[in-house]
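Q: Okay, next protein. This is Zn-dependent exopeptidase from Pleomassaria siparia CBS 279.74. I've checked the sequence twice, so it should be correct. Can you predict the 3D structure?
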Amino acid sequence: MKLYILLGLLPACSIALDVFSVSLAAKEASHLYEIVSRHADLDYGCRAVVLRSENEHKLHAVVNSEQYGRLKRTLDPGTIRIDMLSNLPKRQTETAPIDKGDRFQGGKIAPRGLGVRKPTESFDLGGILNVQEVHSALKGLENEYKSFDTFTTPYKTYEGQSIYGAAVSMAEKCQKDKMHIYLTSGFHARERGGPDNLIYFISDLLYANEHRIGLTYRNVTYTNSQVKIALGTGIVFIPMLNPDGVRYDQANNNRWRKNRNPASAISGDPATVGIDLNRNFDFLWNFTKHFDPSVEPASTDPASAAFYGTGPFSEPETQNMKSVYDEYPNIRWYMDVHSAAGTRLYSWGDDINQSVDKAQNLFNPEYDGKRGIVEDSLYKEYIDEQDWHNVALQANMTANAMMAASTPRSKLWHKDKKANKVYGYTMEFGYPENFYPTAEEFVQNIIDTNAGFMEFCLTADEIGLTG
């Protein structure tokens, strides 16, 4: 089975001593898209996203001191404003710690999330989960609840680590053909808190169902009946898809993004180790062929944080992600969890959507070299009108739940009609380009995303799990 995923597009970035989170603002979105085109070396997170903010548009990025100086010198201040949001190395001293032990004692203790806690209870979860604790948490949930089945994906990482997932439903034994929602996180090592978000959400569902209670995420509440609906959708999830990278990032605090495969590495250059797993799928993987020459959604340079690898699905981590679709053939809704931009992305992602001209689709070689410029009218990606309505509705419902809880990519079905259709999304939680949350932000991220996950499941049930 072929799987085509676009989880977001990131230009290259460099790791430097002085690194800043910045906001670029302009009245016209086209001016910011020009920045993305001219400054491909900036770190825009998972994908360069131009956001509407009141009477202007904004673009967030992480830049080193040289890049910041270059932007200040070359930008027209009358057209584009650049604001420094934070100095990341200084901010790093305030970030939530990584837990050093195993709070779940090898599976003897099950995690309990925030949505089931009473207002009088502490919301202190401890530090961010380390790699060992992610597996231990899954074992704890399996030991505590009958309707929770863990699995080990088929391929080990370069460093020999296994990648673990689980399936959860209302039934005591999860039936593979009854699983309709697929959630993943931890592709990008530096995006701390993603695995925690998923694990605590699933633990909330199981605890609430077991104790016949609802869930509360700040200003958003869900009944026990809604908890049962969410569980009844059948959820498969992998909380940490890149354990090698996560372990390396947690040990070095260097905002590492890729995995740790040295196959393309250059001796003496540590930045050339690893592949950006988010660029390793076969959705328009050969971007130099498929996209306009001015668009750089990935990189052929191993030193780039957006290096796409030696071929589509060259990495065990992406192969493992794909393998779940073979094991659970009726998945209809997929969401990959990232940070830190505070956006929700949905298919297609290679260009602007349209529902008029079916010839403008990613399989048509006539449009090779013309995709990716979002401000032109030469090419727009075709999507069925009903599918577009469904993915947009789901994205808006999920975003609304997250905003209410907050304080002040997909399988290509239109080529193969026999393939199971999957609506794909990327959730970008957190605060602009702050990949290492503070302890307070860490807790708020869990509340935000868990409300979003809940709405995602309920809306999927409402739109449809099959058909």
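A: Here is a summary of the prediction. Residues 1-17, 408-414 have pLDDT under 50 and may be disordered. The radius of gyration is 21 Å.
Q: Noted. On to the next one.
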